Amino acid sequence: MTKRSPSPETIKAWGRLMRVSRQLVEKTEDTLKTSGLPPLAWYDVLHELAEAGEGGLRPFELIDRVLLAQYNVSRLLARLEADGLVEKLPVSDDGRGQTVRITPAGRETRRRIWAVYGASIADLMGDRLSAKELETLAALLGRLRDPPILE
Amino acid sequence: MTKRSPSPETIKAWGRLMRVSRQLVEKTEDTLKTSGLPPLAWYDVLHELAEAGEGGLRPFELIDRVLLAQYNVSRLLARLEADGLVEKLPVSDDGRGQTVRITPAGRETRRRIWAVYGASIADLMGDRLSAKELETLAALLGRLRDPPILE
DNA sequence: ATTCGATAGATGCAATTGCATCAAGCTTGA
DNA sequence: TCAAGCTTGATGCAATTGCATCTATCGAAT
Fold it and tell me: Which of A18, A32, A125, B99 could bond A37 through an S-S bridge, CB–CB 3.0 to 4.6 Å?
């Protein structure tokens, strides 16, 4: 690997990104906890499953959507199932796999988390930047994504 | 709390921020691990201590600088001390406290981490945005910080 | 059909984190 | 000066994460 030092602007932007994202996550997690709600990761999974509809999702599909490690998804799903928020169905054409589907209780929990999470997002981000600034921010971040989004 | 739903632009920017920051951290941690180097949190602490110079820092000062919980800092410092990267000195005017100072070995480790970390930053961020874009990004993120930076 | 490698998901064990609480020392105020 | 409360830092214990590995099934090549 070529030894390279990033420019001062790069370092500054990187530092801000690291600090801000951690602050935002931490505050949001705190708010959820204070409200007696489960952590963000639960929301992410319930959200993906709600979007997937009745067909549900295979665990391995969930893995890249929510950016969690395989064993993390496996155990998170076990907890969600134990709480009755998702159900696991055998899948006909692959004996190894399963399909995970959100239950009505899961949808309700997702809704309750969103009431708090959405307010937190509005509070921490929506109130601080204009619509145009938000779009600029999203576009710049999209270029850092993998795969990049060049809009 | 007033029930509020964030605007679509807000949600989009939030989603990108969450995803991108996690991707960047994960890739960087992977790179460090592959290089046989300690995790990012070690760098953060060593960096702050290096900047603090010979005077060192009190653990509680480190807490807000690196955004770690008190018990996390306590244990991380114990590990750094065990590795000889920092040293703890009693502080004269407060019998409870201590001053933590980076050692030469700590400076060397910091340098070695930076060689890889800096390259990762350049790779993941510096190469993808222009200087002007980086400044825009940093400014927008600064407004989300707590306390906000209005430049 | 049988073997071999790849994929899906689970899990034992060690390390780390989070929570609650502790001990020790400081500060304030009667 | 002494009690009450605050601050600093550490730690026991439970929950979570990370790593490595396991089992089961699939698919492809022979």
Answer: A32
In a domain, B43, yes or no: yes
- Please indicate, yes or no, if residue B122 is contained in any of the structural domains: yes
CA of A36 to C1' of D9 (A): 29
Q: Which helix (H) or strand (E) holds A107?
A: helix A104-121
Q: Give yes or no for A78 touching B (CB within 8 A).
A: no
Best CA proximity match to A39, nearest among A99, A105, A120: A120
Q: What is the Cα–Cα distance from B1 to A77, expressed in whole angstroms?
A: 31
Identify the bridge partners of residue B102 per DSSP, sorted by sequence position.
B86
Whether B128 is covered by a domain: the verdict is yes
Q: Is A131 helix (H, G, I), strand (E, B) or coil?
A: helix
Using one digit for the tens of pLDDT, what is the confidence trace for B15-67? 999 999 999 999 999 999 999 999 999 999 999 999 999 999 999 999 989 99
- Find the Å distance, CA of residue B91 to C1' of nucleotide D19: 40
Phi-psi map region of B52: left, alpha, beta (phi>0 left; psi -120 to 50 alpha): alpha
Expressed as residue numbers, the domain containing B107 is: 13-144
Q: Closest Cα to residue B44, out of B24, B69, B67?
A: B67
| Interface check A91 vs B, CB under 8 A | no
**Domain for residue B39, yes or no?**
yes
pLDDT of B3: 67
pLDDT tens digits for range A84-119: 999 999 987 898 999 999 999 999 999 999 999 999
Looking at the structure of chain A, the number of domains it has is: 1
Shortest Cα distance, chain B CAs vs residue A127, angstroms: 9
Residue B102, number of CB atoms within 10 A of its CB: 26
What's the pLDDT tens digit per position in B118-141? 999 999 999 999 999 999 999 999
